[in-house]
Amino acid sequence: IERSFSLHRTHTLKDMENIFQLVRNVIPPLTGKKHKGQDGRIGIVGGCREYTGAPYFAAITALKVGADLSHVFCTKDAATVIKSYSPELIVHPVLDSPNAIHEVEKWLPRLHSVVIGPGLGRDEVLLENAKGIIEKSKMKGIPIIIDAVSIFFISVSGLTLKNLFSECSYCVLQDGLWLISQQPSLIQGYQRAILTPNYMEFSRLYEAMLRDPVDSSDHHGCVLRLSQAMGNLTVVQKGERDLISDGEK
C-alpha cells in the first residue's frame, strides 16, 4: 500500500480496497482445511548455464501470487545456481539429460500448469526436449505459458501455436513479441493466446499488422484495432495504466 501511494498519490484507501477485492476474487483463500499443493503447483521448464535468472523469477513469482509449489526443470549446471537463489523452489537438473522428456513427464500429472521457455537458450538439444515436453503437456490438457525462446523454436521448426495448443486451456505470450511482429501468422486467430506487449513492443506489432504508426491520441482504439487485426486475441498493453482488449471492447 505504501508503495502504491508513493507512486500514485491520488489513490485512496477505497481505491486500494477495490484492488484487493479483485485479487481476492482470483486467488483462493488460505484456510486450515487445505494442505500444501492444493492452491497451485507450477512447473517451469528452462534454465541453462547462461540464463538462470529468468526461470527463478518465473518460479518465485508464482509463489508470490499464491501458488503453493514451484518446480524448475533446468540443465544440470544451472540447478545449483537456481537453487541457491531460494530454498522455496524445487529444482530438477534434468533438462539436458538423455531422458529429459520422460523425467519431466513423470511430474506432469502433479502440475496445474507449465511455463516453457524462461532461460531456455537456443541449444538444439534443449529445444528438442522443450518440444517433447510441450507435446506431453498438451496430451494431458495442461495449460501452458510460452516464453521468448519457445516462440523462436516454434518459428524455426515450422510449427504453429494453433497446432501445438489446440487441446490446451490457454497460452500467454509474454516475450518473443519481436518475432510475432515479424511473423504475425504464428498466432493470428488463435483466441487462446494472450499478448502482453510493453509500449515499444506494441508499436512494432501494431505497425506490422496495420501498416500505420500508433495514434498517440487514441491508445484505447489502437489496442482494440490490434486485437481485431490479430483475430480477436486478447492484447494487454502494459504501462502505468494497462489497456486490455479482446477485440470486442
UniProtKB/TrEMBL annotation:
Pfam families: Carb_kinase. PANTHER family: ATP-DEPENDENT (S)-NAD(P)H-HYDRATE DEHYDRATASE, ATP-DEPENDENT (S)-NAD(P)H-HYDRATE DEHYDRATASE FAMILY MEMBER. Coiled coil: none annotated. The gene is Naxd. GO terms for molecular function: ATP binding; ATP-dependent NAD(P)H-hydrate dehydratase activity. This is ATP-dependent NAD(P)H-hydrate dehydratase. It comes from Emberiza fucata. It is an enzyme of class 4 (lyase). The keyword NAD applies. It comes from the Eukaryota.
